[in-house]
């Protein structure tokens, strides 16, 4: 009589389902916590943006406001927002790579929107505070399709940021279909990635070397 | 074992993989899989991970449940022992033969037993070394014919109830036969009894230490558990004992097979006999001491595995073979297939990472801004499903090793920490590589080497 241990396999099948369920539950807990962490950091960025906006309103509506002091605050706030955003971009990339169950679309969208917000504040800062020492550099990159040039350009812009004190590099995902980004692309006629927009009038299309970027604006070396 | 036999010159029987249509099919499947990886990498990885997890968790649980719930076959106390002969095939095994023969001769058994050394036309004068050992018969084969042929010749010379086949680099302890032979009477249709094979030259270097750990986990707990459901598919070459009438009935060793011990195990099973496992005694054997020798041995084993799994494909999910057909056989087939898939994924990942890093380096250089930051390391520290599964398999493997070591009644010391880590982390990649190489060699019909 050939032996077939049906009971053993039934138990093992039940155990397998249970173990898989526990593993998925563990992954879900890890993924959710990680996403919560990123979301809270993005919320911090937005709060920082809100604070910058209030400084602008303060300078605009409060009578006899010390404009220089307000501008100093704005400079500090935008710099902080940019620093936090820079840290977040690496974290976001790592978390997304390790993620299995969470959906990062909204999280990513919020991050890119906060970057656009930062760019607008930087432009406003330039105008209101007449601060020529701040140079907003918008880096249009692709995130939904393969773009090795974009990834190299990102590394090169990191070097630019490390070299020039006054460079405010703002990454904008050009292929996410966000209305505000499409508006920017139409405004500055951005058709390809990577594209770098220095200030509002200088546009560099395609992969650019560090020296060329630095020579395109008045870089204040650290 | 690696030094025992001659380069194998005969072609083995044609397997399914030898067909040009199957070869084309395999190439097409590999191509489709790589394209799939390219377009939807994450999905391919998750599918492979989940598939592998289901198989490994399920089989791990089956082992544990059998271990905990099924009683062991208790060998009876024998009043009358069966007659027995020991066959030792030997080819140029001058370094080990004398020690092996002395160990074999020193084995205790209530009735006299023959020891026949089958010299497969050695050229190193090894046979002269054993002339002084008393009670040894030497049969010299006219020309070099291979291990299986030598054993078949020996079997034909025996008229005993049992035949023990022992490699010329294996040193069975005194009590081996006394412990193992009663297992033939533990169940009604036991045709073969295997033993707990361990590494003799374990202290030689890291590679032999690694194999020591590997042998404990392969021949200890897993073999004992599989024997409970008659799930063993290999009668290990270093030492196995067979019923002679069964060997005569099923036709002896397949002389055209490069892993004759696996082929024999499968044939024993396919003829409705059972394979028992005696883990009460540890039988030391020599293992390869260099990477090159290990590579050759494993390529031979794995090519033989691929070939034999096809040859006995009719046993897969066949109710006639009970647990063997429904668990043992499919588990090995799935293990081999997932090894290929995981290797393909890892290879794809490493290759694409290396290529994209090189391309990015070239792009950076083209604008005179060299910035080389390999992206491979970016998320290596992140906890993800792979790491959870790895941790789980680590626990299960550690438990199996613990049980195997307990059965062997040995203690693992500090010197086993590094080899254990090696077995866990480096070995799977190495084994996958060997399996893929074996598949390619088998598909391209490259020459078989012993």
Q: Short summary of the structure?
A:
With 222 residues, chain A is an alpha+beta fold.
How would you characterize the overall build of this protein?
- The complex is a heterodimer of chains A (222) and B (450).
- With 222 residues, chain A is α+β, with helices and mostly antiparallel strands.
- Chain A has two domains: 8-131; 133-222, Glutaredoxin.
- In chain A, 64% of the residues lie in helices and 10% in strands.
- Chain A is built from six helices and four strands; from the N terminus they run αααβαβαββα.
- Chain A has helices at residues 6-61, 67-98, 105-128, 148-163, 179-187, 210-215, and strands spanning 135-141, 167-173, 195-198, 202-205.
- Chain A has a four-stranded mixed sheet with strand order 2-1-3-4, sandwiched between helices.
- In chain A, strand 1 (135-141), helix 4 (148-163) and strand 2 (167-173) form a beta-alpha-beta unit.
- The longest helix of chain A has 56 residues, at 6-61.
- Chain A is elongated and about 90 Å long.
- The N and C termini of chain A lie far apart (84 Å).
- Chain B has 450 residues and is an alpha/beta fold.
- Chain B has one domain: Spore Coat Polysaccharide Biosynthesis Protein SpsA, Chain A (Alpha-Beta Complex), CATH 3.90.550.
- A seven-stranded mixed sheet of chain B has the order 3-2-1-4-6-5-7, with helices on both faces.
- In chain B, helix 1 (20-39) packs across helix 2 (41-69), helix 2 (41-69) runs antiparallel to helix 12 and helix 7 (206-219) runs parallel beside helix 8.
- Chain B is globular, with a radius of gyration of 24 Å.
- Chain B starts with 19 loop residues before the first helix and ends in a 7-residue tail after the last helix.
- The A-B interface holds A 2-5, 8-9, 11-13, 15-16, 19-20, 23, 26-27, 30, 90, 93-95, 97-100, 148-149, 151-152, 155-156, 158-159, 207-212 and B 46, 53-54, 57-59, 61-62, 65-66, 69-70, 229-230, 319-323, 326-327, 356, 359-360, 363-364, 366-369, 371, 373, 375, 378-379, 382-385, 388-389, 392.
């Amino acid at each position: 009589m050939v032996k077939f241990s049906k009971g053993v396999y039934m138990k093992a099948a039940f155990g397998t389902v249970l173990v898989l369920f526990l593993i998925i539950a563990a992954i879900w807990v890890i993924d959710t916590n990680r996403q919560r962490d990123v979301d809270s950091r993005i919320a911090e960025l937005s709060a920082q943006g809100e604070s910058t906006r209030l400084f602008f309103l303060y300078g605009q509506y409060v009578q006899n406001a010390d404009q220089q002091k307000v501008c100093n605050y704005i400079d500090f706030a935008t710099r902080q927002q940019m620093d936090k955003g820079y840290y977040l971009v690496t974290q976001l990339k790592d978390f997304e790579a390790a993620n299995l169950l969470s959906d990062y679309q909204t999280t990513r969208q919020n991050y890119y929107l906060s970057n656009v917000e930062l760019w607008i504040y930087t432009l406003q800062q330039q105008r209101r505070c007449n601060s020529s020492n701040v140079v907003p550099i918008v880096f249009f990159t692709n995130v939904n399709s393969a773009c090795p040039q974009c990834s190299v350009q990102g590394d090169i812009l990191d070097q630019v940021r490390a070299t020039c004190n006054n460079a405010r590099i703002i990454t904008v995902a050009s292929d996410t279909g966000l209305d505000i980004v499409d508006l920017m692309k139409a405004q500055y006629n951005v058709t390809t990635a990577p594209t770098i927009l220095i200030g509002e009038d200088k546009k560099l299309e395609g992969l650019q070397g560090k020296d060329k970027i630095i020579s395109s604006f008045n870089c204040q070396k650290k | 074992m690696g030094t025992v036999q001659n380069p194998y010159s005969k072609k083995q029987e044609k397997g399914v993989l030898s067909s040009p249509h199957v070869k084309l099919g395999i190439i097409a499947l590999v191509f489709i899989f790589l394209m799939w990886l390219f377009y939807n990498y994450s999905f391919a990885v998750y599918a492979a991970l989940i598939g592998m997890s289901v198989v490994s968790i399920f089989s791990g649980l089956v082992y544990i449940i059998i271990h905990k719930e099924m009683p062991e076959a208790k060998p009876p106390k024998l009043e009358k022992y069966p007659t027995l002969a020991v066959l030792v095939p030997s080819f140029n095994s001058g370094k080990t033969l004398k020690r092996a023969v002395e160990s074999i001769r020193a084995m205790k058994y209530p009735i006299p037993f023959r020891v026949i050394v089958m010299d497969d036309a050695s050229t190193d004068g090894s046979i002269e070394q054993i002339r002084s050992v008393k009670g040894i018969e030497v049969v010299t084969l006219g020309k070099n014919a291979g291990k299986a042929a030598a054993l078949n010749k020996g079997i034909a010379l025996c008229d005993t109830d049992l035949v023990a086949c022992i490699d010329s680099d294996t040193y069975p302890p005194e009590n081996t036969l006394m412990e193992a032979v009663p297992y033939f009477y533990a169940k009604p249709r036991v045709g073969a009894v295997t033993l707990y094979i361990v590494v003799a030259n374990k202290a030689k270097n890291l590679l032999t230490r690694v194999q020591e750990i590997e042998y404990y986990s392969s021949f200890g707990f897993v073999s004992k558990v599989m024997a409970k459901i008659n799930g063993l598919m290999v009668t290990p070459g270093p030492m196995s004992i067979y019923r002679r009438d069964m060997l005569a009935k099923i036709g002896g060793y397949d002389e055209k097979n490069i892993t004759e011990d696996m082929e024999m195990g499968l044939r024993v099973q396919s003829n409705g006999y059972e394979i028992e496992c005696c883990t009460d005694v540890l039988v030391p054997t020599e293992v390869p001491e260099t990477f090159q020798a290990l590579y050759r041995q494993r390529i031979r084993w794995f090519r033989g595995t691929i070939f034999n799994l096809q040859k006995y494909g009719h046993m897969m999910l066949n109710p006639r073979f009970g647990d063997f057909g429904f668990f043992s056989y499919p588990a090995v087939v799935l293990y081999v297939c997932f090894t290929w898939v995981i290797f393909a994924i890892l290879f794809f990942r490493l290759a694409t990472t290396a290529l994209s890093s090189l391309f990015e380096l070239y792009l950076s250089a083209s604008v005179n801004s060299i910035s080389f930051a390999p992206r491979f390391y970016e998320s290596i520290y992140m906890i993800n499903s792979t790491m959870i599964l790895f941790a789980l398999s680590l626990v299960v493997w550690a438990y199996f090793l613990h049980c195997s070591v307990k059965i062997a009644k040995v203690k693992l010391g500090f010197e086993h920490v590094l080899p254990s880590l090696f077995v866990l982390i480096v070995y799977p990649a190495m084994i996958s590589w060997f399996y893929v190489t074996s598949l390619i060699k088998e598909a391209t019909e490259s020459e078989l080497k012993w």
